Task: structure prediction
Amino acid sequence: MVDREPSTELGAFSSEVASAVPWAAGRRELEEAQLFWLATVHPDGRPHVTPLVGVWLDGTFCFSTGSTERKAKNLAENPHCSVITGRNVLDGLDIVVEGTASGVDDDGGRRAIADALEAKYGPHFAAPDGTWAGLGDAIRAGEVGAWRVEPTTAFGFSKGASYGQTRWKFS
Result:
């Protein structure tokens, strides 16, 4: 997959002096963020939100989860979801990616996601006593699910001297 260049527009709820955030800046936030929130929907319509680690890879958000976890069960029923990252302060850039999740079943895709997670999170994945030690190998072996979220729309909420709402639309 290749990172697609979305159309960019500044939203109506922006300060008069705000300007649209370039997609390169939004993508950089997604590449550098350490923590994300995934919002899915229970089969009965209730929302479910959970924190997780992930990587922006080849124009998609990628993560891993076990098949018995709530987010995996929800995505199996309804693949529409949102991925959120940002700062818990009134400065900086918050990102919301809306898209469709799909499981990654091919060896090359699982390997690429595991490699990217290990490269990004380092000792958390690689050290024997790391938080997720061995998870990369479990992803590669297909013992743990790997997922990609293909973006349809993303929003960048800039905060600070001016406030802006940028919409990135993926075709």
Notes: The longest helix spans residues 107-121.
